[in-house]
Design goal:
Largest sheet: 6 strands, mixed
Strand order of the largest sheet: 1-6-5-2-4-3
CATH class: Alpha Beta
Number of strands: 6
Oligomer: single chain
CATH topology: Rossmann fold
Distance between the termini: 45 Å
Shape: globular
Helix content: 40-55%
Order of helices and strands: HEHEHEHHEHHEHHHEH
Length: 274
């Protein structure tokens, strides 16, 4: 099997910092990267093994961390990415946080307070299932904050992410891009299939009615917050298999760039007799 290079996957998916971004120009299906689903599955298995090895080195080094931000509409597959990309990774080196509607305590603080508290500590891979971008997405669409407040938040988010990267946190941000049609199929499956019904939330249908508004909000968030220190990657997500394989390539690439190393304990085997 010939895997697409990490460089080529990044190039195909990145929202270039500082450039105009149009979401309707991005595919929700992308066969150029993985033409064959079996190749995508094989690539995922290989990358998952390497991610596990690299995470172990990151944990041993305990100097830096990796944060994977997963953002997307309902049914885009955030939990599926976590389950598959990190299938072989030790839970000891992972922190996963799913961001729901803020609690009363969280609302009593600034909107980034709960986010900073969840940033992975040194040596860990952290995963955000939804994130601080909810505060320029659903908050914007539902008008839970003023237009002026939303406008300020793009810059605040960029500053926050820059501060994290300057303090040893590598950030990989993935928008899971699905079509309106595919979301409808997946919502229908949740409702009709007994083992999926627990996932169905009637409120998701209200968000679905606002699809154009959400797409506009995503477009603004990506264009304004794809930066050199934390660029956005737009991942075609109508195909679960290809989606998982692409994100695995991005995660592996980020860890390889970090190149974590086990620390030298300062002693040698010949110093001891067991």
């Amino acid at each position: 099997m010939t895997q697409p290079s990490i460089k080529s996957v990044r190039k195909a998916l990145i929202a270039e910092p500082g450039e105009k971004f149009k979401l309707d120009e991005r595919a929700t299906r992308h066969r150029d990267i993985f033409d064959d689903k079996e190749e995508a599955r094989a690539s995922l298995v290989e990358d998952a093994a390497h991610i596990n090895e690299l995470q172990d080195r990151l944990y041993g080094e305990s100097q830096r961390s990796l944060l994977l931000v997963l953002q997307g509409m309902d049914t885009s597959g955030k939990s599926g990415v976590i389950r598959n990309v990190f299938a072989l990774t030790s839970p000891l080196g992972m922190q996963v946080r799913a961001f729901k509607a803020p609690s009363k305590t969280e609302l009593a603080h600034d909107y980034l307070w709960r986010i900073h508290d969840a940033v992975p500590r040194k040596g860990m891979i952290g995963i955000f299932d939804r994130s601080h971008y909810e505060d320029v997405l659903v908050v914007k669409v539902r008008e839970f904050a003023s237009k002026s407040a939303i406008k300020q938040r793009y810059g605040q988010i960029n500053d926050f992410e820059k501060m994290l990267t300057e303090n040893g946190v590598v950030i990989v941000k993935c928008m899971l891009n699905i079509s309106h049609e595919t979301q409808g199929e997946r919502l229908r499956a949740r409702l009709e299939e007994p083992h999926k019904r627990w996932k169905f939330n009637p409120g998701d249908l209200e968000d679905r009615k606002l699809w154009p508004d959400f797409m506009d909000a995503y477009e603004d968030a990506v264009e304004k917050c794809s930066t050199e220190h934390a660029p956005w990657f737009i991942v075609p997500s109508d195909s679960r298999t290809r989606r998982n394989a692409m994100i695995a390539r991005l995660v592996r690439g980020a860890l390889e760039d970090m190149d974590p190393a086990y620390p030298d304990p300062g002693f040698r085997p010949d110093q001891f007799e067991i």
